[in-house]
Prior knowledge:
Elements: E1 5-11, H1 16-36, E2 39-47, E3 53-61, H2 67-71, E4 76-83, E5 92-103, H3 108-112, E6 121-126, H4 134-138, E7 142-147, E8 152-156, H5 162-184, E9 204-209, E10 215-216
Parallel strand pairs: 4-9
Antiparallel strand pairs: 1-3, 1-5, 2-3, 4-5, 6-7, 7-8, 9-10
Amino acid sequence: xxxxxxxxxxxxxxxxxxxxxxxxxxxxxxxxxxxxxxxxxxxxxxxxxxxxxxxxxxxxxxxxxxxxxxxxxxxxxxxxxxxxxxxxxxxxxxxxxxxxxxxxxxxxxxxxxxxxxxxxxxxxxxxxxxxxxxxxxxxxxxxxxxxxxxxxxxxxxxxxxxxxxxxxxxxxxxxxxxxxxxxxxxxxxxxxxxxxxxxxxxxxxxxxxxxxxxxxx
Length: 217
């Protein structure tokens, strides 16, 4: 609970409305972290086609302590019901966003000792967007690693070097798998099966109803 944590916001069912909902959740967590005295840094984001974001990755640390302890309860699907500004008939619309929360384990020695078979990994490279110089935007420096048995995806774009991004992504993946292993109380990483957040109906942990009445529950 006393470790920094990583929040991944992902747009679910709802299209443009879902992308806008992710942007609202980003602002909500930024303001909440600021009021509590935590440090929040947005490490990666993928813009929506019209508005908002398809995904946002944030790191929360410092503050009064226990960042993961404070935010781990946010993990799950968040459902929004409102009169959509993107609906031509101004009809009520339901949309979803997934929030995944994982601790950032700072003991790299223990993480390095975890072995994941190559056959369980799918590694892809891509170009990093945004600021960082011409090299970042022209070379496939960003790395995404998928753990096939569990379906976990980790992406790293923060460094200019593909090798550095791969190393950071592997540490992040191992930290998430280790955290899930502790939650599920399984003996080995290979026993972990899908602990992904599904941003869809029936999986929500909280409802934000703005029409026909206002209720957050």
